[in-house]
Amino acid sequence: MTLENQTITCIDFGKLIGSVERFRNEGYRLVQIGCTKVGDQYEINYSFDKDYHFENLRITVTADIEIPSISGMYWNSFIYENEMHDLFGIPVRGMNIDFKGTFIRTAVKFPFSMPPVTVVKGDKP
Amino acid sequence: MSKQIIVPFGPQHPVLPEPIHLDLVLEDEKVVDVVPSIGYIHRGFEKLVEKREYTEYVYIAERTCGICSFVHGATYCQGIEQIMKIDVPERAQYLRVIWSEYSRLHSHLLWLGLFADSFGFENLFMSAWKIREGILDVMEETTGGRVIQGSCKVGGVRRDISNEKLDEMVKDLDRIDRDMKELTTVFLKDSSIQHRLRNVGVISREDAYHLGAVGPTARGSGVAIDARKLGYGAYDRLNVHVVTESCGDCYSRCAVRANELFTSTDLIRQAAKKIPEGPIDVKVTGSPDGEYFMRAEQPRGELVHYLKGNGTKFLVRSRIRTPTLTNIPALLKMLQGCELADVPVIVMSIDPCISCTER
Q: Which residues of A touch B (CB under 8 A)?
């Protein structure tokens, strides 16, 4: 099987906006923003594609850090940023459309957050 | 400026098979803004990865969607195989392509029927679904399942298709092509349909690209992106024709899907001709340790399964980015400035799959 060449570049949280801006200026589209729990931190991957060239930026943050929205450069990022907030409880600053926790109406609040959510039998949404 | 009012659209609506809610901000009959919300049926599938072994999770991945279930299962398996550096037998790769393209046929025919229903063409709806039934019969006969196939596994596939059956399927494709030609001619040539779809829900090439649209939603605006061009599975050995249209309206998105039906039958023919003899799976040992963003072309567009393992039998993370989720911003752009009466048709034109979105 052909293996797609994928690059993951780890950057400091403070360099996020500048790095995303570079992708925007070079004509990349935003493929997705995804979040993963790693220990007591979160890895956030920003994926971009241009002409089937796939690149990722990765920042690692703790839950109390408010991350800046990239919706000024990629308008569609609000989908992923609201998802990140609603599932992981990560605060995102300056989203173009902020649903304030109502975009994904889960039965338990922040189901992917830390410490892990435990659902007690009989819990109602 | 006219007085603005907000009209709720959904979560229950005759054109919506699944719940999504849109708050339509109207000035008279014109939509000036739209605020979407989802989450009515969020299932938390991604959380289950912590409780199911990676070999079992393929069943969960398949159940992300009841239409493109095979593609979800295959994409998940291919992601794990990339992390574990598993060489999948060629025959299994070709079988995955064949079933993926049957899934695309079934999905596009289902959508064509629902789309016809959204603009009130009931017998066209039935004609599309009649052809789809034949496709589902083949899926059932070859995999054992009509909707959830369960034929893909990490390391290959569970079932083979005999060469005699493949010949029979290829012969039957001629009849399917004829039926689809008759069907799509109505969609693409009928004057009342053209009147209903042309210049409705227009999105430019630039907007479609920068708003992250994928699949027929992007290709209908002239953005020629198709994840099959990445060459996963056996696609690198087949000639994949990317269908595009340029107008970016509902008609263009319909035309892309109508023409892609024939691309799919062509790919099945190519795969059936080139499929080699040999095993259909390999023994898998160990557990995935690493990460991979597996991208594949689902009927609705680019699908991403991000998988991360830590060397145990339980994955650390499975993140599924579905095409409908990424097509929502483009949908909002299409709806701005449209007439209220056009909203159902425009919403249907992106082929929304809320089941996938609410994984």
A: 1-4, 6, 8, 29-32, 34-38, 45, 47, 49, 52, 54, 56, 74-76, 78-79, 86, 97, 99, 102-106, 111-112
pLDDT for the residue numbered A108: 79
The tens digit of pLDDT for each residue in A4-40 reads: 778 899 999 899 999 999 999 999 999 999 998 888 8
Q: Is residue A55 part of a domain?
A: yes
Q: Which residue has the higher pLDDT, B60 or B43?
A: B60
Check if the interface score ipTM surpasses 0.85: yes
CATH of residue A12's domain is 3.30.460.80
Mean pLDDT of B134-150: 91
User: Is-cis flag, bond preceding B11, omega within 30?
Assistant: yes
CA B272 vs. chain centroid, Å, equals: 22
CA-to-CA distance for B182 and B4, rounded, in angstroms? 45
DSSP track, B34-84? EEEEB-TT---GGGGGGTS-TTTHHHHHHTT-SSSHHHHHHHHHHHHHHHH
Q: Helix B90-118 vs helix B250-274: angle between axes, to the nearest 10 degrees?
A: 160
What does each C-alpha distance from B306 to A42, B37, B335 come to in angstroms?
15, 24, 31
Query: Quick one: pLDDT at residue A33?
Result: 94
DSSP letter for B341, please: G
- Residue pair A6/B293 in contact by the 8 Å Cβ criterion: yes
Q: Topology of B42-357 in CATH? A: Cytochrome-c3 Hydrogenase; chain B (1.10.645)
Residue A106 is assigned to a structural domain of this protein: no
Contact B208, B334 (CB under 8 A): no
Name the phi and psi angles at A10, rounded to 5: -85, 130
